[in-house]
Specification:
2 helices, 67 residues, elongated, mainly alpha
Length: 67
């Protein structure tokens, strides 16, 4: 799992790229830009999913360790 700072940078980078591709698609109507936008959105969803799963696992481990 990436460290918090790297996760934040990666999320910001993917969000900016997604916005850029969406903007380019709106201006040009090229299907390639829409595809790139969708790929970036999938990356963002994956980062959020992994962060949520990692947090859940860590909380379970902490609970087990304390009890």
């Amino acid at each position: 799992m990436l460290k918090q700072e790297r996760q934040s940078k990666q999320f910001s980078k993917s969000a900016a790229a997604a916005y850029s591709h969406l903007d380019n698609f709106i201006k040009s109507a090229k299907p390639e830009e829409l595809h790139k936008y969708r790929v970036e959105i999938k990356k963002l969803k994956a980062l959020l999913f992994l962060k949520r799963i990692f947090r859940s696992v860590m909380m379970k481990l902490i609970y087990q360790f304390n009890h």
